[in-house]
Amino acid sequence: MTHATASLMRPPFPAERGVDAHNLKLGMWVFLASEVMFFTALIGSYVILRFGAPGEWAKPGVVLNIPVTAFNTFLLICSSVSMVKAFAAISDGDQKMLKVWLLVTIIGGAMFVGIQAYEYTHLIHRGFLPSGVREGSELAELVANGTLPAATMGLYGSTFYAMTGFHGFHVTCGVVAMAYLYLFRVRRGKYSQQDYRGIEAVGLYWHFVDLVWIILFTIVYLI
Amino acid sequence: MTTVAATHDVGHGEHAPSGFWRKYIFSTDHKTIGIQFLFLSLFFLLLGGILAMQMRWQLGFPGKPMPGGGILPESMAPGGVILPEYYIQLVTMHGTFMVFFAIMPLLVGVFANFLIPLKLGAHDMAFPRINMASFWFAFAAGMVMLASLFVPEGAARAGWTMYAPLSARPDLSGAELGQKLWSVSIVLLGLSSILGSLNYITTIINNRAPGMTWFRMPLSVWSLFITAILGLLALPVLSGAAIMLLFDQTIGTHFFDPPAGGQPLLWQHLFWFFGHPEVYILILPAMGMVSDIIANGSRKPIFGYHSMVFAIIAIAFLGWIVWGHHMFMSGMNPTLGSSFMISTMVIAVPSAIKTFNWMGTMWRGNLRFHVPMMHAVAFVAMFVIGGLSGIFMAATPVDMHIHDTYFIVAHLHYVLFGGSLFALFGAITYWYPKMFGRMMSERWGKIHFWLTFVFYNLVFFPMHNLGMAGHMRRIYDPTQYDFLKPLQPLNTFISVCAFLLFASQAIFALNFIISLFRGQKAPQNPWLDNGLEWTLPNPAPHGNWAQIPSVYRGPYEFSSPEVEEDYLPQTRKLPTDREPAVLSSGAPS
């Protein structure tokens, strides 16, 4: 506390006693620890099921449209950048740019969810379900001619939809939270250079959701 | 920094809510939420007890019509005779209600909510509205679980551990909707616990009164802090597993379905990775509150305060690397089994440190056997028995013999009933005046204690013998097996004692309810304790303190030579005490 640099680095609103972080920021970090465990359970199960599977795992490119999802990944990373810009704007006290960049982030997140919804519709149309491959569908033919392994398609569908679905749910929650802040806080000018705790907390959450997606994209779509 | 005015969304500064709904139902006051949890979980404790009595009837008097069983529908107990399909529901729901909806919310929901701000000198929790959400998620979870008893085919049937594929496939369990409702309820409960935990952790880290340093915190708060960390990190794993189970049950995924490549063992690993930290969630808060009560009842500082804190941390840490000992019989690489065996046995060390510290606290103390103290001492004794039987089953070769027998049932009831529930009876009696402003009856409290203590041991100690003789847990009718027939008189004896144990709890219930209205008005500090909560009137007002008090010492300064009285409150300033530093912001958090 007496340290001069530490004092300069700190945000201007009062930190609670204890650690040098206000309750909302600390609470968000604690919540993210729990989120890490949740995704660890999902991803860990995926690893166990994939490596213990009775037979080969399907090549990702056969079922999934990787270029579209790669674009989606890029979009989500960009929305993380715009989140940082929103945070930087309000820590400089610039309410106008906060509005702009937060709106960009919301749109980026919403587009991510939209593209994911499109991807799901397309996959289900081709016969890829959480329970496996639908009889008589396009993918069923690929299973029949040996391009896709019959024994593991059920697990492939289960893990794919559980992991990406829960990530999509988290993105949706983030978009809703940001839209709430935008409508009821940001537009009414409740944030200032002195107090931008809500933006900081939602920013932490958003970066976390982004980070999880980078892991999921790698293990589900690339390897 | 000191020039910036504190802006806080915490409850202080706001006026106390006046309407009935905001004050008693949708309250954000941590004390009201704690009391809401108290009534909810006592209800589920009673319900879990009623289910246990039906099990005991069937085990003690197999195939005989149960008195009053006629009110149950034909599909459960035609003519009052319990059917096997109903019996397995009783087993499942007794475990589920007791673990998730009685003991866990009693320890954490009630006492973490009620005690943390009061003992730390805070106006309220860090996030009062999240706290309220936590209660209502728990309430919803409880109602969903309760509703599952009344759906066609009845409640879940796969035991409280919900092993797959039995739980995942209705063609195996015979219950479709009941199983799904179990999964939904557990997901909701997980959410409630996570919200609660993040609140407790943030509050303890950030919202302590000036001078309330880490090592001046009462052990009850320390244990609730560590418990909250366990809950925060363990519950999401259970939620993840329960969601996968729900997907298996509803949208046809194959996580735990062997024919499609799913792995039933994965469920067991996920469940016990949660489940073992969970057993410490169910005992650590009890240990903490017992430490507070024993120091008070002994009129001595707690023996080995720091070692108590580090023992709690050590138990919690080790709790993460022992889950495999629940699965020795599930098939496991023997080398891995050995490492789980050793890590499990290591837990005996910090547990023994705590036990000896409690004894060291009582040693040559000026003992006062008030009702909470009697329960606390019983806790120590019963926990030692439960702990010792735990070492038996930690040893892989012994566990091979006693796994899934009544020895396990005896063990878990010695720690959960003899441990947690005795501590809870003590804690409820101890903090009752703070909650309701009246005292519970001392005389009826003692009668309840002795009846419970005697019948409890008569019920659960013989179960060790049943287990050693090979009596399986969760079986419907022991007389079907020739080798269990000689044990049937013991089973009948246990059942009779169980009915008497259950009946004895009526004394507690009546004492609790009658004291609400007729109990003696509580003095401000009825137990002559040092904690911050006793500097407030009974019951404490909304927002607790108008002005946050300063803290000058730890909570266990009993029989201090510096003062006339045999207790020295944490907030009392002696001439030698220095004013604690108010940190940078000066924010009265």
Can you characterise this structure?
The complex is a heterodimer of chains A (223) and B (589). Chain A is an all-alpha fold and 223 residues long. Chain A has a single domain, classed as Up-down Bundle (Four Helix Bundle (Hemerythrin (Met), subunit A)). Chain A is built from eight helices and two strands. In chain A, strands 1-2 form a two-stranded antiparallel ribbon. In chain A, helix 2 runs antiparallel to helix 7. The longest helix of chain A has 34 residues. Chain A starts with a helix and ends with a helix. The interface between A and B is large, with 49 and 51 residues.
Question: Characteristics of this structure?
Answer:
heterodimer, A: mainly alpha, Four Helix Bundle (Hemerythrin (Met), subunit A), two-stranded antiparallel sheet, 2% strand, elongated, disordered N terminus, B: 589 residues, mainly alpha, 0% strand, disordered C terminus
Summarize the structure.
The complex is a heterodimer of chains A (223) and B (589). Chain A is mainly alpha-helical. Helices cover 73% and strands 2% of the residues of chain A.
Q: pLDDT average of chain B, as an integer?
A: 93
CATH superfamily of chain B: Cytochrome c oxidase-like, subunit I domain
User: N- to C-terminal separation of chain B?
Assistant: 15 Å
Number of domains of chain B: 1
Low-confidence blocks of residues of chain A? 1-12
Report the span from N to C terminus of chain A: 47 Å
Can you identify the CATH class of chain A?
A: Mainly Alpha
